[in-house]
Polyphosphate glucokinase
Amino acid sequence: MNVLSIDIGGSAVKGAPVDTRTGKLLAERYRIETPDKVSPQRLGEIIAEIAKHFRWRGRIGAGFPGVAQGPMIRTSANLHKKFIDCDLVEVIEKATKCRVRVINDADAAGVAEMRFGAGRGEKGAVLLLTLGTGIGSALFWRGVLQPNTELGHLPIRGKSAEKFVAASARKQRDLSWKEWGTQLGNYVRVLEKLLWPELIIVGGGVSDKHHKFFKYMKTRARLVPAEFFNDAGIVGAALAGTGKI
């Protein structure tokens, strides 16, 4: 089944059709910048524009950076607060006239990596972290997703961890790769004490630069970059769009 996948981020919305049998993108991603925090209605319009770009009439899967329970969004740390308790499926279906499924964006990335990528065949505890505007997290046990593990909001000095160790925080705080990698490693070791993962997968836009900071993280678990790099969320949202996740 081919599904139009939508990756909703803090600075842009991206979309591409995906072959869910192989995880391959069937066209180049189409990206629309969102410099301001868009409302749910505006997001629906943006996704409709992406669907129109691909002349899409089939299923749509969307990854959202917040807790997603069925069609409902429960948290929105980095996007408009009107998304909280919003029926995002209804919003997108009304705008596109297509059948829609939504999933937490880090869960989507994790599903892709477990199905096709770095977590393929892993039977123990696997933790995936997506590093971008914030920190997304997904946890798997014996290949089964434990949904909506929002570990990026664990408190550090009274604020969410992502304010200090997300990829965006490195630039905002003007940290070197060594400084940031060391602080990120300290945060990840806290997660290791809580969850005891055997494998940690790092995704998000910064994952293709993993050679610059992995050496400073000093984790107990095996640490690997996402094989899909920043496309993991797109692939996983497409899998969610099939209705089988």
Summary: The CA atoms of residues 107 and 119 lie 13 Å apart. The mean pLDDT is 95. Residues 177-195 form the longest helix (19 residues).
